[in-house]
From TrEMBL:
Matches recorded under PANTHER family: MITOCHONDRIAL AMIDOXIME REDUCING COMPONENT 1, MOLYBDOPTERIN COFACTOR SULFURASE MOSC
Matches recorded under Pfam families: MOSC, MOSC_N
Protein name: MOSC domain-containing protein
Domain MOSC: 164-338
UniProt organism field: Plectus sambesii
Single GO term (MF): molybdenum ion binding
Superkingdom: Eukaryota
């Protein structure tokens, strides 16, 4: 009995030491931690990438691309980078979106040889040499979603074109994101966010509203459209970067981590709150007088619990994500997810 007791005590001590060693290794090695997590809770194949969207100017018309590189601050395809430009009020130094000027959704862009071309319906194009913008380095600090961030002013030609095309009486300027300039716009997880299920993390962003990535399932949009007899809404009403096909409607509410293809990996930070920009027709810039589809979303897509009390009438659709591992993703790539332990 004495020997057996000593053996059991030694075995227990050995197990404890082994567990402690595993814990120490996991706490110090992010790669080992990811491996252990994948082993204990493997990701599940739920669909494929259906569309990829890059919006060079915040609120402008998106480019649909077949593949893109996932960088820390957003999608990149060739010289196109997501939300690397933002329109500002030249006097107040406040960032503007389609919520302020609906015609922004009609701006089309192209970037070649580091030259940005802007055009739109029945408008002559204008081209901005971004090398010259960088050399001039006219740094401007503005307020974007209540946080201060700097960028490079793209000059008088860009400002004049925007003012004319957008039919604005305000002095407008175009700001170009430049890594390394001052920014308060890091995305820091808040426990009160909608459907939150991730630990503390911080993500860098250019000029998107909140996070560098937003994903939306095709099934979620299809379900919303099924509630209307004639009017059908586009992905461009909701401005995602990544459209996922093959999963159930609103499955994205339950995602905790996402892997696309072999390399790119994301952490789901929060559900995407929907504002009146969704009511602007992306092809005409006309705002829906009936408040749709936001009105219908409010009826059945309210966040639960404390988040609902805080956001009151803002519904959610889609999921906002931060990048965990960079990589190239393509239309048709498999999408794997690790679901949350608890739904909300």
């Amino acid at each position: 009995m004495h020997l057996r007791g000593n053996f059991e005590l030694a075995a227990a001590a050995g197990i404890s030491i082994g567990a402690l060693a595993v814990y120490e290794l996991a706490s110090k090695s992010s790669s080992f931690r990811r491996w252990l997590n994948d082993y204990m809770d493997p990701m599940i194949l739920i669909g494929t990438v259906g569309e990829l969207h890059i919006h060079p100017i915040k609120s402008s018309r998106s480019h649909m691309v077949s593949e893109a590189f996932c960088s820390e601050v957003g999608l990149r395809c060739g010289e196109l980078r997501d939300r690397y430009f933002v329109i500002i009020n030249g006097d107040t130094k406040i960032a503007l979106t389609a919520l302020n000027i609906p015609r922004v959704v009609l701006i089309e862009t192209a970037i070649k040889d580091n030259k940005l071309t802007m055009t739109g319906q029945q408008a002559d194009p204008t081209t901005i040499d971004l090398n010259a913008v960088a050399q001039k380095a006219n740094v401007v600090r503005v307020s974007c979603k209540g946080k201060q961030i700097e960028g490079l002013d793209c000059g008088d030609t860009a400002g004049a074109w925007l003012q004319q095309f957008l039919e604005s009486t305000e002095p407008l300027r175009l700001l170009y994101f430049w890594p390394g300039l001052f920014s308060e716009r890091q995305v820091i997880v808040d426990k009160n966010w909608e459907f939150i299920a991730v630990p503390y993390r911080k993500d860098e962003v250019a000029y998107p509203n909140r996070t560098p990535y937003m994903a939306l399932s095709q099934a979620s949009l299809d379900d919303l459209n099924s509630k209307f007899d004639s009017q059908k809404y586009e992905m461009r009403n909701f401005r995602p970067n990544i459209v996922v096909v093959g999963c159930p409607a609103y499955d994205e509410d339950l995602w905790n981590e996402v892997r696309i293809g072999d390399h790119a990996k994301f952490v789901c930070v929060r559900a995407c709150i929907r504002c009146p920009i969704t009511t602007i027709n992306p092809n005409t810039a006309e705002k829906a007088v009936d408040g749709e589809p936001l009105k219908t979303l409010k009826e059945y897509r309210q966040p639960p619990g404390e988040a609902q009390a805080q956001k009151k009438e803002w519904p959610v659709l889609g999921v906002q994500m931060g990048l965990d591992e960079a990589g190239v993703i393509k239309v048709g790539d498999p999408v794997y997810v690790r679901y949350k332990k608890f739904p909300h």
